């Protein structure tokens, strides 16, 4: 708008200059001076306008580049966050739980030889050969498994009886019977009795196998058949 206004004024001055010439050369000279002054200002204004437009283009270019860099930075941050999350998930899946007795518990033991004949009621069976004792809960000196960490456990046992003998055994947790099994040897062969229970236990509980009643004959354990006791933590 300013540019058009200046052009209009210049045109008006040029148009009226011949008409006003009769008033004297001094008046014309002043008009010409004013015209040249306005012309210079117009050129200055146009140069300034060009300079501002150039600055505007550079500013827009900078803003576009800056915005692009900001978007790239946000994308990179998102990728880093997603990568860290996937890495954490893979670490949890790949690295097994490490810990002491409270994490992994399992044991297996058996008798190295036959017992004396006719064991009495509530006699605790002692399994002196320990093959597995993860968590160190089983004690081979007294046959008792002491729960190292609370959880649900599975316990299994097997008793072997010679010919003409019999035995009834039971598994006990803190004095409470949780299961029992009976084996009766025939006239011509041995007999085996096995049992398994699932028990919810607490740290420090005692688990063991004992005679349910007076036995008849010996409890066998040799290469032909082992009398054994085992257990493991489910969760």
UniProtKB/TrEMBL annotation:
Q: Enumerate the UniProt keywords alphabetically.
A: Coiled coil, Secreted, Signal
> What PANTHER family does the annotation carry?
C1Q DOMAIN-CONTAINING PROTEIN, CEREBELLIN-RELATED
Annotated C1q domain residues: 100-235
Coiled coil stretches, renumbered: 28-93
Return the protein name: C1q domain-containing protein
Q: Where is the signal peptide?
A: 1-21
Q: Which GO terms describe its cellular component?
A: extracellular region
Where would you find this protein in the cell?
Answer: Secreted
């Amino acid at each position: 708008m300013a540019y058009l206004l200046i052009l209009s004024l210049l045109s008006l001055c040029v148009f009226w200059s011949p008409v006003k010439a009769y008033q004297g050369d001094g008046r014309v000279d002043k008009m010409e001076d004013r015209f040249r002054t306005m012309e210079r200002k117009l050129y200055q204004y146009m140069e300034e306008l060009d300079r501002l437009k150039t600055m505007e283009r550079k500013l827009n270019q900078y803003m576009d580049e800056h915005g692009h860099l900001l978007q790239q930075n946000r994308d990179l941050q998102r990728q880093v966050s997603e990568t860290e999350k996937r890495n954490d998930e893979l670490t949890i899946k790949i690295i097994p739980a490490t810990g002491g007795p409270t994490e992994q518990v399992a044991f297996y033991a058996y008798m190295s030889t036959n017992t004396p004949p006719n064991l009495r009621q509530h006699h605790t069976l002692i399994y002196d050969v320990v093959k597995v004792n993860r968590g160190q809960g089983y004690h081979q000196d007294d046959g008792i498994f002491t729960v190292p960490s609370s959880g649900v456990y599975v316990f299994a046992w097997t008793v072997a009886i010679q010919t003409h003998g019999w035995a009834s055994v039971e598994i006990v947790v803190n004095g409470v019977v949780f299961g029992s099994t009976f084996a009766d040897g025939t006239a011509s062969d041995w007999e085996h009795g096995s049992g398994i229970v699932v028990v919810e236990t607490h740290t420090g509980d005692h688990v063991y196998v004992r005679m349910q009643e007076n036995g008849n004959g010996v409890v066998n354990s040799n290469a032909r058949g082992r009398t054994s006791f085992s257990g493991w933590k489910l969760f």
